[in-house]
Amino acid sequence: MNITIITVGKLKEKYLKQGINEYLKRLGAYAKVNIIEVPDEKAPEQLSEVEMEQVKDKEGERILAKINQDAHVIALAINGKMRTSEELADTLDKLATYGKSKIVFVIGGSLGLSDNVMKRANETLSFSKMTFPHQLMRLVLVEQVYRVFRIIRNEPYHK
């Protein structure tokens, strides 16, 4: 299975990089995982609704340019579907069973994802109704993907 994580912005925090790299190393036994960073759109702190949409649209164009036509896209969104780790494992296992081996997870920038990215997504996923920094979500997502493979393989870890 090929898993791509497309995310907006550069990861700066060393501790997050270390955690992500640890899980990527562990994931090497299960899947090819690639993280693609697209530049975030520079914007002032205070934005109108129209300006927010423009920023999301520009970031969305960069995201969509990195998604293959045959990929199954799962967008992370606060209003997405909440799943347990076991349910996510079941989803990815079924996708693999039915020939969908290219999975793309998308993490938006600080303003979220554009409407066009949400339309391209085959499904949405929410980790919580709470708001998390998008950089931290990379670590949480990579850990959950690792957990998913351990669950699928019925290997100890997820309890």
TrEMBL record:
Annotated HAMAP family: 23SrRNA_methyltr_H
EC primary class: transferase
Keyword Transferase recorded: yes
Catalytic activity: pseudouridine(1915) in 23S rRNA + S-adenosyl-L-methionine = N(3)-methylpseudouridine(1915) in 23S rRNA + S-adenosyl-L-homocysteine + H(+)
Family: Belongs to the RNA methyltransferase RlmH family.
Positions bound to S-adenosyl-L-methionine: L76, G108, F127, S128, K129, M130, T131, F132
Main subcellular location: cytoplasm
Species this protein is from: Bacillus seohaeanensis
Classification via SUPFAM superfamilies: alpha/beta knot
Superkingdom to which the source organism belongs: Bacteria
Function summary: Specifically methylates the pseudouridine at position 1915 (m3Psi1915) in 23S rRNA.
Subunit-level organization: Homodimer.
Record keyword Chaperone present: no
A molecular function GO annotation: methyltransferase activity
Listed EC numbers: 2.1.1.177
InterPro entries the UniProt entry points to: Alpha/beta_knot_MTases (IPR029028), RlmH-like (IPR003742), tRNA_m1G_MTases_N (IPR029026)
Keyword field: Cytoplasm, Methyltransferase, rRNA processing, S-adenosyl-L-methionine, Transferase
Protein's UniProt name: Ribosomal RNA large subunit methyltransferase H
GO-annotated biological processes: methylation
Cellular compartments annotated: Cytoplasm
